[in-house]
Specification:
By secondary structure, the chain is of the alpha+beta class. The chain is built from seven helices and 30 strands.
Length: 494
Amino acid sequence: MIIELRCDTERPRAWIADAIQSLQVIGHTARLRWVKPIATTPRSIDWLFAAEKWMLHGGRRCGADLVDPDTLAASPPDVAPDIVVDFTDAAAGKSSARYLRPLFNGEAGERAALTAILAGDMPVIELRDETSGRVIDRGHPSSEVAVGIGGALDSVMARAVTLLKANLNDVPRPPLHLLPSTRRRDIGFAWRFVLCGLVKHALRLVYRWFCYTPHWHIGWRFTADAGVWQTHDLTGTAWHRLRQRPHRFAADPFAITWQGRTFVFFEELDHSVGKGIISAIEFNEQGPVGEIRTVLEEPWHLSYPFLMEDGGELWMIPECSTTDEVILYRCRRFPDLWERHATLLSGVELADATITRHQGRYYLFGVTREGSGGYSDTLSIYYADRLTGPWQPHAQNPVMVDRATARPAGQMVERDGRLWRPVQDCSRGYGAALTLAEVTELTPTRFAQVTHTYIAPSPDWPGRKLHTLNRCGSLEVIDGARIQPKLFSYLFKS
């Protein structure tokens, strides 16, 4: 397929090169056509991007960087394109090709993206078919890596390309009910936006000097009812905080009973090392017993130890997205001896792999990341007839781009014949709250979900964040973030 990208002739940015490469990797011919937009971006914005690059990004490459246009030479239109994708606000004109245009909070062009970002949030991205005038897809990117206005523009454009790639075939897209904001700020506000960003960056550095960040902790309780799934909040039986080893945080708890013993597995990160391992602690009818023990460590970072029983054996899929693999481990001795058994997926950066069995198939949910986009907004699904695979991508992948309803937050559950998944709501930052979503359609070619409940930290579970929910029998576990001064961790066991 020949795809023609139409971009601002005065703004040859690095994200354009990333977009061309991303399309070529999946087998398309991507070519470039320079177009003069109606609303231009003032040159002063590029000065601000350059200042941010050195003060916020340490000189690292950013998609907002201006690059030598010769490296992005426009291809001659020797063959008519199959699809035109116009990233400007210029008039569409006549074209025999399918004509798509990304919108940012309802308006087109780089200036529209920037004025939406300046209003204080990432814009909703829409993909409009210029022939019919119909919006065919929407997405709302997350902002974890969107440092400064240049970083935000980079993440937004990366996710616009994600939506484009998801719409290159004729597969209908899952419904996503997102409404673009109407908030915008004049482009002249940019210098104040950057100044505020620099001040916030300095304050974060001071905070990190005195406090561990992030610092997660685990909550647990025994409850006779259905707990959070019934109350849709954190009320009820009081929560207890799991005691942690010094200088470490604990997150992503998964509880399981196996061979007559109950353990809670979780990510444990030593702040002095900065790399996660999988640890576990035993529970009896009163609570945790014994000491925390390390059960799995690799040269790479591990987290989110998803557990499931299958074929009479116990399996674990810890997140190891930095390896671009999804790895399945088999339990050789419970709870502390695990062997690598199979690589389920390779060449994909997938986080928080969560598997459910549904109508005779296995479905693997996870958030995928490519390029400079966020890591909590893009949900992809894979399916297989057996746990060990082979795993095939869902026809609608990625099935959604939505920071509020994409990232898994624990085991999927079936209640009253309906399939549910806890998800992270990252609208207010990574792992800020939970949402309970009902999966209303799940086949190898179709997916749909409806969100019902928003659960945030409260006096019942104080802290600034909440991003995992799991249950085993009457034992319910969650986690959250809190402020942890470094001095206190040396004086006391947290």
